[in-house]
TrEMBL record:
GO cellular component terms, A-Z: lysosomal membrane; vacuolar proton-transporting V-type ATPase, V1 domain
SUPFAM superfamilies for this protein: ARM repeat
Alphabetical list of PANTHER family matching this protein: V-TYPE PROTON ATPASE SUBUNIT H
Designated name of the protein: V-type proton ATPase subunit H
GO molecular function, one term: proton-transporting ATPase activity, rotational mechanism
Organism: Caerostris extrusa (Bark spider)
């Protein structure tokens, strides 16, 4: 039986995560583990009007939910707020440490349940009709922080594998060009992570 292209990618991505290949992504996962151990002072972002009260309420609850069951309960009632908050945070916060933490939260959430990629589809809260599933993440690939760019690439790979929406056109061209450029860079400490996440 021949699988559809997205099904093949989804199955391959699942196999990679489950079969221990995750160990080969060492540097990225080790750094993610360290960052997970930290905390973000979300109140300071709200007090400085960088995030809204709704974003603050959601991110505090979601951050405190330390297991899938807790996050499922939050997403059951606040799924639209989830994507709105994460996309708002990605668009308004520029501090590397906080962006790293946010990207790990998104990656963990997607890893727990691949159907959650559909939460990031553009909706009425999108700024422009031309916004795509990929646009909030593709812009992060230009940041100078290696962890941010490689964790973003990991998220984009999951979105591409697990979403019903196919990546195409200029988004696909930009992403593949970025991947090719990264593979050519000497001394990329996350190169092994990129090779496995983008099989």
């Amino acid at each position: 039986m021949e699988l559809a292209p997205n099904t093949k990618l989804s199955t391959l991505s699942d196999d990679i995560e489950k079969e221990g290949v995750l160990d080969a992504t060492g540097a990225l996962q080790q750094r993610a583990s360290e960052i997970r151990g930290g905390m973000v002072n979300w109140m300071s972002y709200m007090q400085s009007n960088m995030i809204t009260q709704d974003d603050y309420n959601f991110i505090i609850a979601f951050d405190k939910a330390r297991d899938k069951k807790g996050r499922d309960a939050i997403l059951e009632t606040q799924s639209s707020q989830c994507s709105k908050t994460f996309l708002s945070l990605l668009g308004h916060i520029s501090k590397d440490q906080t962006l790293q933490y946010i990207l790990i939260m998104i990656d963990d959430m997607l890893q727990e349940d691949k159907s959650r990629v559909e939460l990031f589809k553009p909706t009425k809260h999108s700024k422009k009709k031309s916004d795509s599933l990929w646009s909030p993440f593709l812009s992060l690939l230009n940041r100078p922080d290696g962890f941010i760019t490689n964790m973003t690439s990991r998220i984009i790979a999951k979105l591409a594998c697990w979403s019903k929406e196919l990546m195409d056109g200029s988004d696909l061209n930009f992403y593949l060009t970025w991947l090719k450029d990264q593979l050519r860079q000497p001394n990329n400490e996350y190169i092994q992570s990129m090779e496995y996440q983008n099989l």
